[in-house]
Amino acid sequence: MSAPIVIWGAGAIGGTLGAAFLRAGHAVIFVDSDPAHVAAINAGGLRIDGPIFQDVVRAPAFLPQDVTGRHALIFLCVKALHTEAAVAALAPHLAEDGVVVSAQNGLNELVIAKVVGAARTIGCFVNFGADYLEPGLVHYSGHGAAVIGELDGAITPRIRTLHRLMQDFDPKAVLTQNIWGYLWGKLVYGALLFATAVTNDSIADVLDNPKARAVLTRLGQETGAVAAAEGIRTEAFDGFDPAAFRPDAAQSAIDKSFADMVAHNRRSTKSHSGIWRDLAVRKRKTEVVAQLGPIVETARRHGVPTPLTARLISLIQQIESGQRVLSLENLDDLAKVTQGNPA
User: Fold this and answer.
1) Is 343 among the domain residues?
2) Which of 61, 107, 63 is nearest to 81 (CA)?
3) What value does the mean pLDDT take over residues 87-94?
């Protein structure tokens, strides 16, 4: 693409995407709210480490308040809890015929569309492994699904162009007419990841733990029921089929889904989720309210009960505030909700 691609949020997702676009010959501008990260990128470039590729890429980086001009393509890659503030900051810099691509976790497209309009919002789903380690350094740890699509499912010239761009990141990138199916499918998986993050065990170990299986199943089924009530046809990705957590799914499908998730995560060099890193390493708020909150809100509209999801949000908020420590016992606490005894 001739115009620069703006990467708004140069952390794990944004830094990895931006580096790949630069390596493919595209012009890129990084925007990030961390002054130290911006300074490091401008001084020595953005370093990508990990088993996929190792490189130092160079592109100008700016704090949000220092961005100028209007741009045709902005990839929004901030944490879900920062979406509202970020889209307000970027909106003046979006060209009239420009688009914002939500390369995030959650249903952020809804938030973005309220500000810039649905016509200028592109749905995007990513599931690769990456972590921000320190200013100027991102670790790209594992391949994962990359999907892009118009919110209304249309196959337009611009979405074909954006799909080709995503293929510069991952040749297997998918162009879909059902982006909401992927986003809701990721919410099912995301709920399980949030549950693994209340422990110190790896993702694979928690998913493979027989004692945790029942509560994790019920948790996934809550989101599956909400997606079904919303009329969403969830899409499978990276060996995970969220249809296994629909209300009518057979136990054999559930067992296979857990086995596939365990196998996928054992192959990854990223043992713990970014959620766990926020809690255990960076000691900061997670995306739990921004990601799981909409599940509870949507469930309320449909009259679908989500007591485990609501309790998981509460557990993580307690960990964030220092009232609770990371432990497998937190899953025991969560399991009490399934026994009709909310903790």
Assistant:
1) no
2) 107
3) 98
